[in-house]
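Let's sit down with a protein and look at its sequence and fold side by side. Please make up or recall a protein chain and show it to me in full. Label the sequence line and the structure token line clearly, so we can match residues to local backbone shapes. Go ahead whenever you are ready, and we will take it from there.
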Amino acid sequence: SYVLEQRSIFADTGLATVGRALRQLGWGKTGVVRYSLDDEVRLTGLAPVASTGWMIGIGALESDVLANVNRFQSFLLWVSLIFISLGIAIAVTLGRQIAHPLRQTQLVIEGVASGDLTKTVTVRSQDEVGKVAAALNTTIDSIRRIIAMVTNTTDELANASAQMAAASQEVSASVEEVASTTNEFSSTLETMNDNA
């Protein structure tokens, strides 16, 4: 209708935004211009027709052109939110799987530090945490065996000491008996000497 009415996009004030967009692109060049007309933003693809010196353009409303882009943007936003939520859930789950055995190991170590050698860590995995738990259990077992050996050795020393004390008492009693006998013999000799 603008062609039939012979309206100029450069002179008509209602079409001035179209004329400015064409000037920015440059006459005779191929490209896309964006302008506002009748309170709607429009996009027009332009290409020169070499034989006539004219330019041909195909236009559409920007909202129609970008409708699929906006839907795709919304789709990407939802997919991103789902993946972020999934990532957070996985991170929390992995964190708990790592933290729980470490907390158990910590409790056993604190028990050992306070002298409680009755606890051990339940080993459920062969990863680094599981290997540390197994090493801790081995250490606790070794400490128990050492304490048992020390206790047995102490008991044996106590028995040996009691036997030595008994033997010492026997020796002491024998020495006293020998001393008593020697005293009696000496008295008898003195008596015999005095009588002779």
Q: What stands out?
A: The helical segments are 16-25, 62-113, 128-195. The two ends are 176 Å apart (CA to CA).
